[in-house]
């Protein structure tokens, strides 16, 4: 049988896939991640800046920044400030998770999904984790574990993603 016959060549398909290029990023601190996001979305931070649109010169006179005034009144500026608030909330959550997860691994005997659901459901604020003493953190974990043991099925059901019906 001749493999180079034109009818046979038309039926042979390549068995390879082309993949997108990926980049490997080292783990970063929440502040580094936030700063990288600030530089990536620098136009949002530029349009969202509405602080001090009016400046008073000590030698006399008043200066009005048209860009900051426009940013304060425009929809683009409002949406940019909303995006900045989302990034700030993500920074706070990342900081809290960085302190919370090692603590829960050390103080609880949970593993797998149970540990993940416990960590997400009882995640305290980063302010609490920064200001609280070690004993206050242990007390919070202990109280949270009591609540978790009493209602683990309900917590797992709340945290589970809904099933998707592929229509």
Short key terms for the protein model shown above:
two-stranded antiparallel ribbon, 167 residues, single chain, 9 helices, mainly alpha
Explain what the structure shows.
This protein has a two-stranded antiparallel sheet. α2 runs antiparallel to α5 (75-107), α4 crosses α5 (75-107) and α6 (112-121) crosses α9 (152-159). The chain contains nine helices and two strands. A hairpin with a 5-residue loop joins β1 and β2. The mean pLDDT is 84. It has helices at residues 6-11, 30-40, 42-47, 66-73, 75-107, 112-121, 126-131, 134-150, 152-159, and strands at 54-56, 62-64. The chain is mostly helical and 167 residues long. The chain has one domain. 5% of the residues are buried.
Largest sheet: 2 strands, antiparallel
Q: Counting H and I runs of at least 4 residues, what is the number of helices?
A: 9
Give the strand line-up of the largest sheet.
1-2
Structural class from helices and strands?
A: mainly alpha
List SSEs in N-to-C order.
HHHEEHHHHHH
Number of strands: 2
Parts with pLDDT < 50 across at least 5 consecutive residues: none
Percent strand: under 5%
Instruction: State the domain count.
Output: 1
Task: State the gist of this model.
This protein is mainly α and 167 residues long. Helix content is 63%, strand content 4%.
Give the SSE map:
Layout: H1 6-11, H2 30-40, H3 42-47, E1 54-56, E2 62-64, H4 66-73, H5 75-107, H6 112-121, H7 126-131, H8 134-150, H9 152-159
Antiparallel strand pairs: 1-2
């Amino acid at each position: 049988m001749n493999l180079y016959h034109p009818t046979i060549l038309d039926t042979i398909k390549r068995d390879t896939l082309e993949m997108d290029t990926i980049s490997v990023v080292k783990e970063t601190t929440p502040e580094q991640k936030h700063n990288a996001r600030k530089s990536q979305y620098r136009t949002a931070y530029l349009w969202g800046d509405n602080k001090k649109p009016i400046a008073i010169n000590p030698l006399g006179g008043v200066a009005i920044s048209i860009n900051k005034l426009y940013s304060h009144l425009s929809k683009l500026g409002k949406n940019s400030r909303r995006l900045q608030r989302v990034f700030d909330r993500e920074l706070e959550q990342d900081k809290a998770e960085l302190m919370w997860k090692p603590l829960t691994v050390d103080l609880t005997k949970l593993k797998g999904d149970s540990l993940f659901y416990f960590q997400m459901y009882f995640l305290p604020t980063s302010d609490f984790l920064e200001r609280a003493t070690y004993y206050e953190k242990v007390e919070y974990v202990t109280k949270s574990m009591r609540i978790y043991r009493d209602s683990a099925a309900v917590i797992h059901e709340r945290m589970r993603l809904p099933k998707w019906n592929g229509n």
